Batch of 4 targets.
Target 1
Amino acid sequence: MPPPGSGGPSFAKGSGGQNGFNPRNAEDIFAEFFGSSPFGFRSFGPGRSGRFHSDGGKFGGFNSTDNRKPPPVESKLPCNLEELYTGSTRRMKISRTVVNALGRQVQESEILTIDVKPGWKKGTKITFPDKGNELPNQLPADLVFIIDGKPHDLYKRDGNDLIVNQRVSLAEALGGTTINLVTLDGRNLSLPVTDIINPCHELVVAKEGMPIAKEPGNRGDLKIKFEVMFPKKLTL
């Protein structure tokens, strides 16, 4: 045994390992001085290293699919008032860009069916998930149709009510008249008016308005607004 102080190796027990000796990975020592390993590994602490790491959707240096969804593709769906009153079935042919199995963008056509429900309003949205355009390494966008109401020659919609502007002569306003209308579903509606019609007079016919989409079987009202046509000259 070397005498004390002769400079020979001395081992003391400690928490670092057997007899206090803590072997270290050469890559970790290199990384401690130079900030990285010369072998293309990333250090994960004493005795551990790894070649691959995850960072912002990349793994092992390879890009993965971006799971973000692009904004939806929106398109107006014009509907006349009769369709929104009775309901209808619309078939829409669409063309969109998709990514095939080879990773190439190609055009694809498809026919979509839309069941327009009675009582739907302007602004109602119908969403077809993943039926929009598709870009490489991204999720396909949704396709959204937005109901747009066309104007009608006779009826005007006001929420769930229907409005009709009706002109009457002064004689009709004083002596009574009958209003004949054809409803949006093709029925003949005959409305006798026996009261004196004053300017801005309004006749309300209950349950003859638009269907209420969220209340099946229920309807709004039909409101007839009168305009009295006064003669420009009086004849004796």
Target 2
Amino acid sequence: MNKKLKFGIIGCSSISERSTIPAIQKSSFAELEMIGSRSETKAKEFAKKFDCVKFGSYENILDDNDIDVVYISTPIGTHEEWAIKAAKAGKHVLCEKSSTVSFKSAKKMVDTCIDNKVRILEGFMFRFHPQHKKVKDLISNHSIGKSFLFNGNFGFPTFPKGNIRYDLKLGGGFLNDCGCYPICASRIIFEKEPRGVMCNLFIDPETGVDVRGHSYMVFDDQKAASA
């Protein structure tokens, strides 16, 4: 049996607490090795909650030779920094979505991982959900006919002021936080990248971040998607 992958957590976020760390602990392929936070107090609290002996700073995670993979769950605007540092430290990277704020930044992250012979994965969990596999199977075997149009919507109630989603410097905004879901789903359904994209974002004048929007994507074979 192959050894379990040992995970180091960078960022004591609500999603890591609610979903990712419990999933790691339930997995037969992974185990929780260390928890890292900017705050030693918070790292210690998380470590106690999840019965993890080792905790410390983000740098401590990268310096630990026992760790195989880092899970990055910091604000989107900081993902590039820690993904690149992790790759250079020889760690594989599981990066919470959205992976980063631009194509240029994403390419830099991927290129660094390739150069250091480690893998990187963006954490869109829905891609691996059984219901989405079922949808893909129905489309692939033509049970529901040939697909030409994808229409996706995703959103949630407004967050209170001060939430990091309203911080432009931290990569805040609707597109990176939830608009990315239907866009990603359309590419999975059509199994191609769009050859044309139009996007309309509504910017909050107070914070400078996009708070809602709409995109239209054109694919080959007369296929299109709206999100």
Target 3
Amino acid sequence: MMLKSLLLLVLCSSSAMAATSLPDNRHIVVKGEAVVRTAPDSADITLEFEVVKAESVQAKQQVDAQVNELLAGLNNFFIDEKSISAGRIFVEPNMRYDENDNQVKDGFRATRKVKVSLKKLSLLDGFLNFALKVGVNQIEQIQLLSTKASDYEQAALDKAVANAKQQGSSLASAFEAKLGRVYSIQSQEVGSHFGYGSNTNIERIMVTGSRINTVPEGKYLQESITFRASVNVVFDLVVE
């Protein structure tokens, strides 16, 4: 029984080694990682218009008028037609609860979402003020971006490769060996993200009556975009 268990363990170990494509000779497996940060220079903004009126056609017409006013002023922010996408307009009964907790119809609600790509981040504050002025009820999301994202992704990957080489050389030297040729590159990941720390209010600006619930103006301009890359590499080891 013990012999069978030992044989099974050896077979499983051999299968695991084969799955990771490791060489039979001396080798070292390292994971190189790198981070590149940069300030954003553009933004994608998702806006929502919402109007409630007694008649459905009135609600739709007011949303149409607000969206048209927004589109008419986009040239002031250097936004062309290719940088705009407007979703379908939805019109539905506006329901509320009465004093007996029964749902009753209270007019009609019309909603429409518009996504805008702003190429000049310095105009963001002015654009948000303009959007709220023409009737936007909610700024659902502000995604800060970089127009040179592909360059920064490549820079992060290059640094991750250099980090893998440095780690491999350092470890090999510590054991009186030298780093040989690359046997395999098992995987690589490149990604980016932006954030606002613990402050989540900036991702959603809502209008309640005449009050705008938001963070102090310009807060989001201090944030940065982080590009991360990692690469797993198997090197041969040379022992003299």
Target 4
Amino acid sequence: EMSSYGKRVAEEFARASVQAGIVTVSGLAEGIDGAVAEESLHAGGKTIAALGHGLAMIYPSSHKTLAKKIVGSGGLLLTEFPLDTTPGKHTFPARNRIIAGLSLGTVVLEAPEKSGAIITAELALEYGREVFAVPGHIFDENYAGCHRLISTGQAKLVHSPEDVLRDIGIVSSGRGSAVSAYEPQSPMESTILDCLTTMPQPVDDIVGKTTLSSGDVNSTLTMLELAGAAQNIGGGQWVKRG
């Protein structure tokens, strides 16, 4: 069960992420997931909920209203399962790999040793993504997983949302947008930077949005990466960095 401390931390991290222009991702589970989704919407942002079942139902049923709010606010309910698939032991770990794959970084909060959050963190590490963990009371078993990730060096200890935003290259402007310290050196760089966001995009999408040639886009992205303004996160997917 989510503690008042966990709820406060989840809401603070979700709110700061939205203010930085980030779309949050969770699994629509009770507790931390629900708090992240609710606060993301309350802060005026969008959120993605990856489901461990088909779209013919919402689990837990207590989140039916939340699911409708997510879609109504321009967010997304995402699943790889057929329409009538019901939740089971095998479906949630599969769901967790989608959460890890979609995210630039995974923040672990109130996670026992055996929990979905730890599975997601381990998958994120396999995918080469950043993993962060919020510490808690040393005698609280609900933080045992967080503390292990920190002590083994698998996760970076974070005290605030700004720790995460700085690490992934995003600066919270407090105005609902992500800002970059890099000054474009040409009109082409400016055009591509305007297209890039904190959500991964393939080169083909960037070419289509900018109407620049594939060669120009690829060469400019390389220069932007060298300057620390863009990052290839693998698979030809690009994001903006601060």
